[in-house]
Write a structure and sequence with these properties.
Elements: E1 42-44, E2 49-53, E3 59-62
Antiparallel strand pairs: 1-2, 2-3
Length: about 70
């Protein structure tokens, strides 16, 4: 789907992967909102990377097998 200025789009948690790309010459501002709950995991299906919450309460990047970057 192509978006225009002023449009809003949302993605459901656990839904299919999505990609946001700016093919124009103008600057594009993106606001990402999430709750970052302790068991929240972000998976990047085309790459060997996941974002998980570490024991220190900070987001950590790990390989899909769980080993740290």
């Amino acid at each position: 789907m192509q978006l225009a200025a002023g449009m809003v789009v949302g993605f459901l948690a656990g839904g299919p992967a999505h990609l946001i790309r700016n093919d124009g010459d103008a600057i594009c501002a993106i606001l990402e909102v999430g709750d970052r709950s302790r068991n929240n995991v972000v998976s990047y299906p085309m790459d060997d990377i996941r974002a998980v919450m570490g024991g220190d309460g900070k987001r950590q990047l790990v390989h899909k097998d769980g080993t740290p970057y």
